[in-house]
Amino acid sequence: MSTQLSEQSYEMEADPDVYKTLLESTRAIPWKIDWKTLRFTYIGPQIESLLGWQRDSWRSVDDWAERMHPDDRKWVVDFCVSQSQEGSDHEADYRALKSDGSYLWIRDVVHVLRNEQGEVDALIGFMFDIDERKKVEQERDCLRQELEELSYKDCLTGVANRRMLDQVLEQEWMDARRNCQPLSLVIIDIDYFKQYNDSFGHFKGDECLRQVASLLADSACRARDVVARFGGEEFVLVLPQTDAHAALTVAERCFAALQDANIPHPASPVSSQLTLSCGVATCLPNHRNSLDDFLEQADKALYKAKDGSRNCIVVAEN
What we know:
- The structure is a single chain.
- Helix content is about 45%, strand content about 25%.
- The protein has 2 domains: about 140 residues, Beta-Lactamase (2-Layer Sandwich); about 160 residues, Alpha-Beta Plaits (2-Layer Sandwich), CATH 3.30.70.270.
- By secondary structure, the protein is an alpha+beta fold.
- The chain starts with a helix and ends with a strand.
- Helix 8 packs across helix 9 and helix 9 packs across helix 10.
- It catalyses: 2 GTP = 3',3'-c-di-GMP + 2 diphosphate.
């Protein structure tokens, strides 16, 4: 009995039609390329149902490269060629062009065959349809990015939160120190915001905070400038590569924008509309000063404005 099974197994191994049937019954697409001519010597019939191209249209590696998304083509071709030249098995994910003009994510798994002299003789491999898997991965990555962005945003106003502010300040301080460039801070407090809430209610107060945050973000118009909610009704503008004069200009622009918005605040002792108190500080970071000292300098300027007439800007003394 065992002898009969052995003979049947040998017959299967020796029959190329068996291998062909097995290969062509899988969902993966088998293929083979002659290394010297870089032409396909075989590609499975599954290619027609997957990508729509006729089997006989896959003549050389040029057809393979041309039927690839332009954004993927260069790195995939360069990578696969270099790995093949080194005789290393490899795999690559890319978007393959379908005959209808759409794209499908493919994973190409490549095995390098050598001749008796150890030279690369042929490449054989399988193309796998990984389109659904890629879509799931991309959706997961988008969700992760959204969650990460939310973790750095103030949920009420949409500007940066305290966590993001701390990281930005640390980074900009180090950059300013390394490049010998000025760094400026503008700390802003909404005047008599408690009275605003008492007059209009917290729902209207939240709307007011969102409006002020938007005005501040528009006033700090450079891409690298950061507007963050420091807490409650306080906001901070981080202004890299900004000297004292330019920082004062930004603060004045914030005041002008709020004045133009003309948000009523009848309970305010200083004005019939919403106003701000503002502290401005500028520093050229070096080994003799610290970020904490800089923050304290800006904070003292703010409280000097609040202890005075409010509705004003105080620039910290260097």
